[in-house]
């Protein structure tokens, strides 16, 4: 197996691997082949001369005393040891306990070994390629992609093909009411990439993640893509409503105006992709009281008091329904956006009519219990 360096370069070029990766695959495959052809327990090594591009398969043996018990007790593994006298014929300076390395002739491995080597090489190259793909897609988590539907199973999980990988859009990560069929091109965000013991590498997509909203805004709003407008946070109830907090890095750019676009053209394009989801754009503030007040828009807030992780909001009675929103949707989104548990207090009321808005259920019964029947 001469000029192995040329073979390694060819493999690297053909499979899109780095030179060191192809070299590692060849070395590992050759060592595994030697273990199967010779002795499994023996220790082997591969040396590749980068100048001559030649390869040498080496076996390591342990130097022991003459008439050592190890030789007697391990007669079946005699190739793992060499007595000191024999070792000194190879290296006069060697000592008992040292390892002696000698070259194995590759020509002695035979045709069977060649077939094993081919399978081993194919296997290890495939593993390296899969690991490279895994690392590449793991770095792309949170990125928007467009992929083609190849199958929809009985549970409404959608399977898509994107470049060299197969991906899945679970039913739970699909906007309610959406239906896809084979051939559809679906835009989504890479939610996570993981290794399944049975199925191998898995790429999971999502259309319900707040990150998907942010990626769509980045595609539609050049100021966001160019980082003139910053998205600080977003919250969604998929297919219904969303809120996004924005700020500008320059006074020349209106963060909310740039995101909404002329006559709402930009935000409407994003809303259309999200099946008509209404999107509230608010200006971010690093003053918590101001941030919470803006997050509860369109309600007009009288005052906000921050107590730890809770925001106590004083509000006129005629603004309470706007602050809560239909089925509690506005207060829930505001809480998710700001990270505060929001408690509402009617202006002039002696008692608090609050809501733990981190409770995401927000059903009609819960609202009656929290805010009364009005």
Layout of helices and strands, plus pairs?
Elements: H1 4-15, H2 19-37, E1 43-48, E2 55-64, H3 69-73, E3 81-83, H4 84-90, E4 99-104, H5 110-138, E5 144-152, E6 158-162, E7 165-169, E8 185-196, E9 200-206, H6 210-220, H7 222-225, E10 229-237, E11 241-248, H8 255-260, H9 265-273, E12 278-283, H10 288-295, E13 303-307, E14 310-315, H11 320-324, H12 329-338, E15 341-346, H13 364-371
Parallel strand pairs: 2-3, 7-9, 11-12, 14-15
Antiparallel strand pairs: 1-2, 2-4, 5-6, 5-8, 6-7, 8-9, 10-11, 13-14
Helix pairs in contact: 1-2, 2-5, 6-9, 10-12
Verbal overview:
This protein has helices spanning 4-15, 19-37, 69-73, 84-90, 110-138, 210-220, 222-225, 255-260, 265-273, 288-295, 320-324, 329-338, 364-371; strands at residues 43-48, 55-64, 81-83, 99-104, 144-152, 158-162, 165-169, 185-196, 200-206, 229-237, 241-248, 278-283, 303-307, 310-315, 341-346. It is an alpha/beta fold. Helix content is 36%, strand content 28%.
């Amino acid at each position: 197996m001469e000029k192995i360096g040329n073979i390694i370069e060819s493999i690297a070029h053909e499979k899109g691997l780095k030179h060191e990766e192809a070299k590692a695959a060849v070395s590992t495959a050759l060592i595994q082949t030697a273990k199967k052809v010779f002795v499994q327990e023996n220790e082997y090594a591969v040396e590749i001369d980068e100048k001559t591009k030649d390869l040498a398969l080496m076996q390591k043996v342990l130097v022991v005393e003459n008439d050592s018990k190890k030789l007697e007790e391990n007669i079946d593994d005699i190739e793992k040891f060499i007595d000191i006298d024999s070792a000194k014929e190879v290296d006069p300076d060697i000592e008992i306990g040292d390892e002696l390395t000698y070259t194995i002739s590759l020509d002695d491995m035979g045709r069977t070994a060649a077939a094993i080597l081919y399978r081993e090489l194919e296997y290890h190259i495939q593993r390296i390629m899969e690991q490279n793909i895994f690392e590449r897609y793991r770095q792309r988590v949170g990125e928007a992609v467009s992929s083609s539907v190849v199958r929809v199973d009985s549970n409404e999980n959608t399977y898509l093909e994107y470049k060299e990988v197969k991906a899945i859009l679970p039913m739970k990560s699909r906007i309610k009411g959406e239906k896809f069929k084979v051939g559809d091109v679906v835009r989504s965000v890479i939610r996570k990439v993981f290794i399944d013991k049975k199925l191998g590498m898995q790429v999971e997509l999502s259309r319900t993640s707040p990150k998907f909203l942010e990626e769509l805004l980045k595609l539609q709003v050049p100021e966001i893509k160019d980082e003139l407008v910053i998205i600080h946070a977003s919250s969604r109830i998929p297919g219904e409503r969303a809120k996004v907090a924005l700020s500008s890095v320059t006074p020349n750019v209106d963060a909310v105006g740039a995101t909404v676009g002329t006559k709402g053209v930009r935000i409407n394009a994003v809303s259309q992709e999200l099946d008509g989801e209404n999107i509230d754009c608010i200006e971010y503030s690093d003053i918590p009281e101001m941030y919470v007040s803006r997050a509860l828009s369109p309600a007009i807030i009288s005052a906000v008091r921050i107590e730890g992780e809770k925001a106590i909001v004083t509000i006129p009675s005629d603004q309470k329904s706007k602050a809560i929103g239909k089925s509690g949707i506005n207060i829930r989104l505001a809480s998710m956006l700001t990270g505060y548990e929001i408690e509402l207090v009617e202006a002039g009321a002696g008692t608090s009519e609050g809501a733990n808005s981190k409770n995401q259920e927000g059903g009609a019964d819960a609202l009656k219990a929290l805010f009364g029947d009005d």
